[in-house]
Amino acid sequence: MARRKQSVFEDLVDITSKLPWWVGVVLAAIAYAWLHGIAVSEVATPAEPGMMIRHTSQSLGRTLASVGQYLLPLAFLSGAAISALARQKRKALHQQVATSADKDALNNMSWQEFEALVGEAFRRKGFAVTETGGGGADGGVDLALRRGNESILVQCKQWKTYKVGVSTVRELYGVMAAKRASGGVVVTSGVFTDEARSFASGKNIQLIDGSALHSLIGGVSAPRLSTTENAASPACPDCQGTMVKRIAKRGASVGKEFWGCSRYPVCKGTRPA
To answer: The domain 104-272 is classified under which CATH number: 3.40.1350.10, 3.80.10.10, 3.40.109.10, 3.90.650.10?
Structure first.
């Protein structure tokens, strides 16, 4: 289905809604002050025939400013209102999941709410978050994170019953290379296959499953997304903390290396080496 063509007014509202709400308010005030000054300015009567064109253009500008001094601020304020409402909704979603002991709470929301929740979680960890929309020319990237010199791409997969496979992680890795991103994250309400985890290991790609996301939102730990520290060490699947190589001392894998959470025995997350 073709997307309905938007007016300039709707475009301004849409753009402003993606900015912090206070930016829209500031833009509205600046736009009104600027256009109002033009609207109330006097247009000199042309003293010579050659000044008629200038007089006409000034009159037209004043007329447009008289209308624009209300329309432009209205567009900015409408976008600011949408931004503020979206912010409140994200905070409510975050609070709902953070205080819920039921990990299925992640599955009881729409995919739009899931993306908003993930974005809010990263905002609270100090990242500037841009919602890219996903599913287009960006290769399915839903969020773009920025903090300092870090540029991180995020895919959100709210799959209730399916495992996220290696193809999703491989696709993100390709987009990271094309956009020269310093890192990537795949977030799901479900789980990842072993192949997906193996592919992500050592590639600056973090895999956050439903359990880890629930813990992250609950304030247990922050995502380890640094691209300059422990680049060869994968993230713990349970707490997203740093992992270290260990040797199994018992069981069928005795004598073999594996990745174990550095917070053991507090966290017992493991990955195959």
So the answer is: 3.40.1350.10
